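In the previous chapter we treated chains in isolation. Here, by contrast, the input contains two separate entities that must be folded as one system, with a combined length of 544 residues.
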Amino acid sequence: MTTFLRRNWISAIVIVALIVGWEVAGHLAPKSPLRESPIVPPWEFVFGRAIIGLSDYWKFPFWAPVPELGGEQTLLGAGLAVGYHSLLTLYRLVLGLLVGAVGGVALGLAVSRSPLARALLGPSLHLVRTCPLLAMTPLFQFWLGGTNLAAILFVAYGVGVIYLVGTINAVANVPVKFIESALTMGATKSMVYRAVVLPAILPELFSSIFLTLGLAWSAVIGAEYIGVDSGIGRMIIWSEYFSNTGRIAAITILIIVYAFASYAVCRRVQRRMLRWHPQADRSLAAI
Amino acid sequence: MIKVINASCLFRHTSGEEVRALDDVSLAIEVSEFVCLLGRSGHGKSTLLRSVAGLNPLTSGRIEVDGAVVRGPGVERGMVFQEDTVFPWMTVQKNIEFGLRAQNRAPHERKREAARWLEAVGLARFGESWPKELSGGMRKRVAIAAAFAGGAPILLMDEPFGALDYVTRRDLQSLLIDLWQRTRRTIVFVTHDVEEALVLAERVIVMRRGRVADDIPVPLARPRDEDERASRTGVEISKRILHHLALETPVAAPALT
């Protein structure tokens, strides 16, 4: 930690300045007429009133009082609400990412491998790519309702397109020498794909993974804004109903923490899976 | 035994010009021979080798290996490329096992074979290393071990030592000769280096403009050190080769003013 500070003291100062600046803005901003809706909620408000207020979103009549039914606002209730909705959101995010990644990569390999698949999917792919993701949210909701499945498929669709395009590009970049070498050693076409093409595209696929992580967070929160009636995205909408600015800030910070954690996990996985890569140490240090 | 029968191969350049990379080539290579295909770049030696490997379809003619027509790559023909083809995502051991894995051999047998060939190329301690941890010369040893470990009785080598420094190249030439003498596999080795051909080959086939220009036996004693290559026979052979490589008619250089 101390060596980190010594090496990145400029960045550290910027972050501290941002935190302090927010606090100053919170106290300088005009007073809002509503007690729960400061225009810029200061930190002590975000981590005090706002956090406890999140217990409003605990709606099960056990473990903690339910404010909706006249119960008291408690920290326990807030924790339970955050935990419950976080789990739902993470479940949709992870499943959506998995389905999208597996589907996109599989389709990308198919397109690279067979001229028929290429002819079928090639032109429509460009159309789908340019289609704005968030504009599709209501459509998914219309088709599948405000269900988990709708959110998962929405995330899967959003990230799947990126995996598809990423895979096609990566396969095109696999050096022919590796494929020819594998063929002269007696590899079948399917073994070439399994043992040569897949590992060879892995470094490029990881850039798709990092790209889609951010997108997946946007997509899942977007799906919860518009359709699905639970999850941390929906908590923001509930907060917005009563202009609970502090709660919105608190949940946003929570999402940032989750996003950071998911990047960290992916970076660990990348480091492990690409330890063979000639530039592994260099490129990973840069991230 | 490899038989090349009236093999021709035409390429069309993007300029529309047609290039006859192989022009009605016929030749036969016996089992256990060490043959060098020698010629200047662009004169068809690599095209011929890749055709034998099954990586390059012929325009006309055919190639037979032990009587069967070549229609694609096959396990009886291994290949070592000029480029670094060692898979960077596999350990050295796994690289050498690759051919055996393609043939669905049992894991314990693959391990045993890989260990044997690692030992043979002097990399016994490096089985668990990643290719990125090895030097270019060592990776070439891995490629050679992988080709031998696959069990192919015919090994095709496309200027495998072209990108290496002089000393490393000499080391690997000795290694290759040693392996050839111990295994008696058929080796077809493409090179543009007359000295390399004299060190390695039992027979040199000189390619020129897509045709076989000459077919020269090399009856020098081994090891083919400097003295042996400087013997009367050695000098005569190298003169004969150089004669084929030289320009047909000296072109008068236009005056530069």
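Chain A has twelve helices and no strands. The interface with chain B takes residues 175, 177-178, 180-188, 191, 195-196, 199-200, 202, 275-278 of chain A (CB under 8 Å). Compare these points with the single-chain example from earlier in the chapter.
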